[in-house]
Amino acid sequence: MTAADRASSGPPPDFRRRGHFLRKSQGAALSARLAGGEVAQPVAREPAAAEPARESCLEVMDDKPGTLSENSELLFSFGVIADIQYADLEDGYNFQGNRRRYYRHSLLHLRGAIEHWNTEGRLPRCVLQLGDIIDGYNAQYKASEKSLELVMNTFQMLKVPVHHTWGNHEFYNFSRNYLTNSKLNTKFLEDQIVHHPETVPSEDYYAYHFVPFPHFRFILLDAYDLSVLGVDQSSPKYQQCLKILREHNPNSELNSPQGLSEPQFVQFNGGFSQEQLNWLNEVLTFSDTNQEKVVIVSHLPIYPEASDSVCLAWNYRDALAVIWSHKCVVCFFAGHTHDGGYSEDPFGVHHINLEGVIETAPDSQAFGTVYVYPDKMMLKGRGRVPDRIMNYKKENASQF
Ligand SMILES: [Zn+2]
């Protein structure tokens, strides 16, 4: 199997173990350890108290979320979609051979999602595209630019702004330099906070924050800030990242997690630099101070209970430690896993891994719209994306 094959087919079957790292009961202990050691001066908060099951709320979800609760006023909404992985290819299968990939139909799925968002009674403020917009196979067929153009032309039909996240498949097709100068760079949509230069991201990574609605800040993270993908092999950063990868993965095939105690250390994943985490910490500090609610977006998931352990960001614990040292984060959206996942962590942050478009049959769908209320966010999933209720932490829910 070539590297390109593996790149396009995802991790091998034996390594896809779901959330075996960290049970919820272990979360608080882990968070205390992480908050104390691995990130500069985080202050761990008390975990959110156990809350009663909310599943019954799902029964009342319908197409008019504004009518869900007499006390809830819909503030705004936003769309989410992940892993479109378009290629002009016949259908194929993932590496395990058990999940079909609809390379061409993924574009039709995207069109369907856009038509839905465009015809919503109240337009979403924006759409979050969670990465892997075209498949790595395009590089093999020298079709990367053509496929990207096709998908981006489709996105042009969307009446609202789209924020693009970068995933591993972006780097199978393009260099980081190319992406920085491409339409996949939506940093021009960022908001800047006057008199707070510490909240301005560096140009060394692709991350920014924006405010689609007053008091709600969205942060787009670069999960391949530390990565051997898309970087010039002669650069110091490549050597630094290769060293990190090799220290944790002795396999000759760096895409293989075989035998690893930390199976996320594979080539198709990446991590967050300390510089980016420090920046994230500054933005979250500002949001805490200003009583904002925060949504974070990254191609790679960071919470083991919501993801296959082999799909996590290399240093997911560092990202969790930063997030857990603040009270403002409501939810963390990621792609990459294709089969989806959800868990609320001990600090009341909701982790959602969105089901991937690429493995969605033509007669189904894979996207969602998140409706934002004063006390919660509600994901209305379409097709194989389930509905989710994301209540705010209790200490903050009454601020609006
Ligand atoms: Zn991916």
TrEMBL record:
Query: Key word RNA-binding present in the record?
Result: no
The protein's matches in InterPro entries, at most eight in alphabetical order, are given as: Calcineurin-like_PHP, Metallo-depent_PP-like, MPP_ADPRM
**Catalytic function, reaction form:** CDP-choline + H2O = phosphocholine + CMP + 2 H(+); CDP-glycerol + H2O = sn-glycerol 3-phosphate + CMP + 2 H(+); ADP-D-ribose + H2O = D-ribose 5-phosphate + AMP + 2 H(+)
Gene3D superfamilies listed in its UniProt record: 3.60.21.10
The prosthetic group or cofactor this protein requires is:
Mg(2+)
Return the EC number.
3.6.1.13, 3.6.1.16, 3.6.1.53
Start and end residues of each Calcineurin-like phosphoesterase domain: 78-339
Keywords from UniProt, A to Z, are: Hydrolase, Metal-binding, Zinc
Pfam families listed in its UniProt record: Metallophos
Q: Which PANTHER family match?
A: MANGANESE-DEPENDENT ADP-RIBOSE_CDP-ALCOHOL DIPHOSPHATASE (PTHR16509:SF1), PTHR16509
Return the similarity comment: Belongs to the ADPRibase-Mn family.
Indicate the quaternary assembly: Monomer.
The identity of this protein, by name, is: Manganese-dependent ADP-ribose/CDP-alcohol diphosphatase
